[in-house]
Amino acid sequence: MEKIGFIGVGIMGKPMAKNLINAGYDIIAYDIIEKALNEIVEYGADRGTSPKNVAENSDVIFTMLPNSPHVKEVVLGKNGVIEGVRKGQILIDMSSIAPLVSQEIAKELEKKGVEILDAPVSGGEEKAKSGTLAFMVGGKKEVFEKYKGILDVMGGSVTLVGDIGAGQTTKLANQVIVALNIAAVAEAMVLGKKAGVDPEKIFNAIRGGLAGSKCLEDKAPRMLKGNFAPGFKMKLHLKDLTNVFETSRSLHIAMPLTAQVMEMMQVLIADGNEEIDHGGLALFYEKMNRISLKKSNNK
Question: Which domain holds residue 265?
Answer without folding.
Answer: 169-298
